[in-house]
């Protein structure tokens, strides 16, 4: 749509229809013409808007903002063989930190939504940029528990508890994981006994 254009929308099955007129559009130019600084700033704006939306319990809208920010920030070319320390006055470490935060926020949405495999995959992306991210290790552990992968969940919880020994949620999850691993071992031993009895 362009400014002053009108569009009619219809939402089914509620049978709601309405007319929208685009009053103003903020055109920032084409992304391929933006320098790294502008891309970083716009990605940061999308991240902040996404966090606000997430706090308002609008997870799907927040996820859209996080993904949009990731697309923008990933369009900054970084030489993989000889990465620079700074691009357009933006430290590459800040770019990596923003990517880690965006993936971490997206993992929060997937975890809340109950999309365990997406949570697992997204947490792994966090580790590409920040391997010591405790929040991501915790989210990964919870998703692995829900996916019934207790051995890997225990490994993740060990990392969380090594960094935050008083993390009550991680302690509770660890008790549950150890109980599940113990039960699995008991069942396995009984099965082996029956096979060779």
Structural features, described:
The longest helix is centred in the C-terminal third of the chain and has 28 residues, at 168-195. A two-stranded antiparallel ribbon has the order 1-2. It folds into two domains: 30-131, Serine Threonine Protein Phosphatase 5, Tetratricopeptide repeat, CATH 1.25.40; 143-197. It has seven helices and four strands. The chain is extended. With 197 residues, it is mainly α. The mean pLDDT is 92. InterPro entries: FKBP4/5/8-like, TPR-like_helical_dom_sf, TPR_rpt. Pfam families: TPR_19 (PF14559).
Number of helices: 7
CATH structural class of the largest domain: Mainly Alpha
Structural classification? mainly alpha
Q: Return the CATH topology of the largest domain.
A: Serine Threonine Protein Phosphatase 5, Tetratricopeptide repeat
List keywords for this structure.
197 residues; TPR-like_helical_dom_sf; mainly alpha; 64% helix; Serine Threonine Protein Phosphatase 5, Tetratricopeptide repeat; FKBP4/5/8-like; two-stranded antiparallel sheet; 2 domains; two-stranded antiparallel ribbon; TPR_rpt; 8% strand; extended
SSE layout:
Elements: E1 6-11, E2 16-21, H1 36-55, H2 59-74, E3 86-87, E4 90-91, H3 92-113, H4 116-129, H5 134-146, H6 150-163, H7 168-195
Antiparallel strand pairs: 1-2, 3-4
Helix pairs in contact: 1-2, 1-3, 2-3, 3-4, 3-5, 4-5, 5-6, 6-7
